[in-house]
Amino acid sequence: MPSILIVDDLISIHEMLEAVIQPTGYATAFATDGEKALVRYKAERFDLVLADIDMKPMDGITLLKQLKQYDPTAVIIIMTAYASTDSAVQALKLGAFDYLQKPFRVAELMQTLTRGVEFKRMVSERESKGAAATTGTFKPEDFDARFVGSSAKIKRVIAQLKKFATAQTPVLITGELGAGHEIAAELLHLGGASSAQPMSTVDCQMHDAAALQEGLIGAESNGGKWIEQAKNGTLLLEHVQCLDKGTQEKLASVFRGHAHQLRVICTTETDLEKLTEEGGFNEELFYRIATLPVVLPPLRERTEDIPLLLKEVVANAVNSQFDVRQIEFTDDALAKLKAYRWPGNLAEFTQVVSQVIALAESRVITSAQLPLRVHELKDWPSLAEYLAGQEKQYIARVLHGCGGDRIAAAQTLGIDPAKLP
Asked: 139-297 and 300-375: same fold?
């Protein structure tokens, strides 16, 4: 029998909730404040905690924080009497499963409790199956093989992906264009217990608002075809920042009802938290999809990985004249590859190296065979330089970095070329 710990400082609330909940087959227990609830949870463990937000000496938000710290899998539903949703959104941000705004209907209460208990059951099942999933057809070392690199930053990402793969919790993957969002999402899906189930991918950038609402929301706001296709599997929303505000609001509601039925992974190239703070993204949806954040580093911040990445791309490249295993990049070519900023990150790196190898007429590739843009400066001038009165040098470096001629740029600006940085 599923067990629910009800936390409220009003005995009348305990009595009312007990009368409603117990006849439906749930066991109930009670605590009158957060401190007592924490002690009882540690002693007995419950499938779900239903807690009021306004209590003393420990309020519902503090209880939520401490419960999640003690047991990250704890399923907590917050009750709030406030007219605004600020406190509810804060609770979601801290890991609450959902919230109920008083006064709530009995049907709404029971629906939310049912989803919470079902979610707890599925989390427990997935955790028990998770080890088998990652040691079966998909092994932990497969993460390292797919995300090539030995830098501290990429190792941290790989460790996060391994840890998050077996969880049912939503993951938000953030990073610049081409940084490896698709690889990370695929690893999260394949490394989890639901890898045998489908991963439904929706590119929010490629569909208009009407198509997104039809596919994600459905006619009655209970989940469209894309969510149905991902049932018991994974829903991947690429470029999630492109959702219009109306779809964002409705999708938050849909996820409320499907939280236990699918794994949600979202990708974005935008600082979604900042966008949310500025009012450009629905706050509730953000905290529902960003529970576990993964930030992919740009290639320019892990240039020590470039030799390994180069080896990987060369092994998969094609040249009609040579065996690609015989192709070598000279030290100066490697230095240029490391110095370039790679605004397109992994995607651009793979495209450039593959093209250079395909067009190579000798097995030794020098820096002269690299595209012109790869000769760009790595270290762009800082704003501090500009503000320090070095405007001419700043402009000259920018012109040079964009492909302009160094000497011509200096002469145009009246700068001694010998003094250019």
From this structure: no
The CATH number assigned to the domain with range 3-129 reads 3.40.50.2300
Phi/psi region, residue 162 (left: phi>0; alpha: psi -120 to 50; beta: rest), is alpha
Distances in Å between the Cα of 371 and the Cα atoms of 43, 296, 313, 337, 376 are: 65, 26, 17, 10, 10
Q: Which residues of the chain have pLDDT under 50?
A: 83, 130-136, 378-390, 394, 396-404
Task: Tell me how crowded residue 283 is: count the other CB atoms within 10 A of its CB.
Answer: 19
Closest CA relative to residue 142, chosen from 191, 99, 95: 191
Which pLDDT score, from 0 to 100, does residue 212 have? Answer: 92
Domain segments of the chain as ranges = 3-129, 139-297, 300-375, 383-419
Q: How many Å apart are CA 132 and CA 308, to the nearest integer?
A: 30
Residue-wise pLDDT tens digits, 22-78: 999 999 999 999 999 999 998 888 999 999 998 888 889 999 999 988 887 889 999
- 205 and 238 Cβ atoms separated by less than 8 Å: yes
Residue 79 pairs in a beta bridge with 52, 100
In whole angstroms, give the CA distance from residue 363 to residue 383: 42
Is there a contact between 337 and 367 (Cβ–Cβ < 8 Å)? no
pLDDT at residue number 272? 95
- Torsion 333-339-340-343 (CA) sign: positive
Is domain 139-297 in CATH 3.40.50.150, yes or no? no
Distance of CA 38 to the CA centre of its chain: 30
Q: What is the pLDDT of residue 421?
A: 52
Tokens describing residue 118:
């079902």
Between CA 354 and CA 356 the distance in angstroms is 6
Which of the listed CATH numbers 1.10.8.60, 3.30.70.141, 3.40.50.1260, 3.90.1150.180 matches domain 300-375? 1.10.8.60
**What strands, in cross-sheet order, belong to the sheet with 234-238?**
199-203, 234-238, 263-268, 171-174, 292-295
pLDDT at 92: 82
Distance between CA 39 and CA 34 in Å, rounded? 9
Burial zone of 15 (CB within 10 Å; 0-12 exposed, 13-18 middle, 19+ buried): exposed
Q: What share of the chain is helix, strand, coil (3-state, %, to 5)?
A: 55, 10, 35
User: How many Å apart are CA 41 and CA 44, to the nearest integer?
Assistant: 5
- pLDDT value of residue 136: 45
